[in-house]
Amino acid sequence: MISLNKKLWSFNFGCLIAGTFFWLISFGVSAPISEVFHSYPDFILNYHAGVVTAFTAFLLTGAIIFIMRSLFNVCASEHTFWLMLPSLGFIILAILFSQSILITMLYAAFPALIVILTSAIKRRIPKYKTLA
Questions:
Q1: Tens of pLDDT along 6-27?
Q2: Of the candidates 44, 51, 57, 77, which lies 20 to 30 Å from 114 by C-alpha distance?
Q3: DSSP state of 38
């Protein structure tokens, strides 16, 4: 069995998640609009790209966490800080240098961080229930 540095692999998967933010934003902007929403022009103009970006970020991050757990045997709860560090770094860089892209990046970052934290908490709760 190959010895893995789990902190490094958590950081690598965190970079993969953070690197997909710009792809998710461009995917959300270019997503086709369903005919159901044509009667709501305010929704289309203001929220459609953000909702598509958030939903795909949620699904893609969940898939990456599943691949982390099943193929690489790296759990999100082991090194959550290293998994979240690249995403938080992207957010901080957007705050400091480009406020124009901050809101659109948050549409991708918040669902990703919620999935990461939920996965980490879900793995930790049974561990603490056995101690009580």
A1: 888 889 899 999 999 989 999 9
A2: 44
A3: G
